[in-house]
Design goal:
Blueprint (H helix, E strand, L loop, with lengths): L18 E5 L2 E4 L4 E4 L2 H4 L8 H11 L12 H12 L5 E5 L2 H18 L7 E5 L8 H7 L2 H4 L9 E4 L4 H7 L4 E6 L2 E2 L5 E2 L4 H12 L2 E5 L14 H4 L5 E4 L10 E5 L20 H14 L4 H22 L4 E7 L2 E6 L3 H10 L2 E2 L1 E3 L3 E4 L7 H32 L1
Parallel strand pairs: 3-15, 5-6, 5-7, 7-10, 10-11
Antiparallel strand pairs: 1-2, 2-3, 4-12, 8-9, 11-12, 13-14, 14-17, 16-17
Helix pairs in contact: 2-10, 3-10, 11-13, 12-13
Length: about 400
């Protein structure tokens, strides 16, 4: 087979780069070149590559049982659900396979809650500009971005978008049909935009006053990414329903919807389902991830690494203001607001063997594994410094040519 000819749908602008193995924060390409992975599968590989606890859990479970169906009890799922509830606001968990599925489940829970509460007219959700909730038709409508909606027919009804952080706009959007407010505490794809101070608390108060459900999308921010197990802890505001995925499986596909008993009261037998959700393989890995992330001192260490990284990045920003305009984010969800096109910065960093990922608002995301070492942070800083220097030199050379040749 000619590997130069791909039969994959061309829906990704893939870099001409492939990997054969990984270890911790490092990836080895098929040509033997080593890369420092600060993309992390877009916030998925929270414990890096080939973490021994995850490898052991997956290998052991693979030798016993892969799939059995939710027609029967799955002890591994019951254990993981119990642990997630013990570590969060939630009483109930539904397992699925991805962040988009988790978000779909969260919206269904919110709509069904009002139906069984005698308010079936309440089905709409207030969402926010810049949001990204997944690629299903409903979640594209929730995100509301024209570039994602184009060509797929009329958007799914039921979502009202307002500017992120604008509580007055939220109040104006409220209607007798509003069922929920759906928000990312930190917009990852939207540019690592952190909710303004007091905004989430104001949303909580609005929901309580109007009998609405507050739904958080923590697909990207959950499982230690921000230095707390869930990002909502940093804001002191608990939701009624929350979607998680990405880091929950540390690289194995798994998503979950968490809910209070009250919010989930409408989800009775037959209300929702998933063929693969909660399968023994995914649950074994999810429990192994929690073994590591919830161990004493782990999240405190993440906070220390995040502080160190941000301090070093602040120095880089000061040295290269023509390339990096701002350092933003929480924990190890860090955004560099670029002063050059962000795809140029991503490419320059990749040429320095540092993998990153772009985001909205011309931002480059840095998503190192939560187990990143000081030496790896130092290595990343060196690569960012070199990439920024090369971009500055290229800009200066272009300016010189324009001056000479007009």
């Amino acid at each position: 087979m000619d590997l130069r000819v791909s039969h994959l749908l061309p829906t990704y602008a893939r870099a001409d780069l492939a990997f054969e193995r990984g270890q911790g924060a490092w990836l080895t390409a098929t040509d033997g070149m080593r890369f420092l992975d600060f993309a992390g599968g877009v916030a998925v590989n929270c414990l890096g590559h080939a973490h021994p606890a995850l490898v052991a859990a997956l290998s052991e479970q693979a030798g016993r049982l892969w799939h059995i169906s939710n027609l029967y009890r799955i002890p591994e799922a019951e254990r993981l659900a119990e642990r997630l509830c013990a570590a969060s606001f939630a009483d109930l968990v539904f397992f699925c396979n991805s962040g988009a599925e988790a978000m779909e489940g969260a919206v269904k829970i919110a709509r069904k809650y009002h139906t069984v509460s005698g308010r079936p007219e309440r089905y709409r959700a207030i969402t926010f500009e810049g949001a990204f909730h997944g690629r299903t038709l409903a979640m594209l409508a929730a995100g509301g971005q024209a570039k994602h909606l184009d060509g797929f027919g009329p958007p799914v009804a039921g979502f009202d978008q307002v500017p992120f952080g604008d509580i007055d706009a939220v109040k104006r959007a409220l209607s007798p049909e509003t069922a929920a407010i759906l928000v990312e505490p930190i917009q990852g794809e939207g540019g690592v935009r952190v909710a303004p101070p007091g905004f989430l608390r104001a949303l909580r108060e609005l929901c309580d006053a109007h009998g609405l459900l507050l739904v958080f999308d923590e697909v990207q921010t959950g499982i230690g990414r921000t230095g707390t197990f869930f990002a909502y802890e940093r804001f002191g505001v608990a939701p009624d329903v929350m979607a998680v995925a990405k880091g929950l499986g540390g690289g194995f596909p798994v998503g979950a919807v968490l809910a209070t008993a009250e919010a989930g009261k409408g989800m009775t037998i037959g209300a929702h389902g998933s063929t693969f959700g909660g399968n023994p393989l995914a649950m074994a890995v999810g429990n192994a991830v929690l073994d590591v992330v919830l161990a004493p001192g782990f999240l405190e260490n993440v906070q220390e690494k995040a502080l160190l990284f941000k301090q070093r990045l602040a120095g880089i920003k000061d040295r290269h203001p023509g390339v990096i305009g701002e350092v933003r984010g929480e924990g190890l969800l860090i955004g560099l607001a670029a002063a050059v096109p962000n795809d140029q910065l991503v490419a320059a960093l990749r040429s320095e063997t540092l993998l990153t990922v772009g985001a909205g608002e011309n931002v480059v995301r840095l998503l190192p594994p939560l187990i990143v070492e000081d030496a790896e942070i130092a290595a990343a800083i060196e690569r960012i410094d070199r990439a920024a220097t090369r971009l500055e030199q290229a800009a200066a050379n272009n300016a010189t040519r324009e001056t000479i040749f007009g």
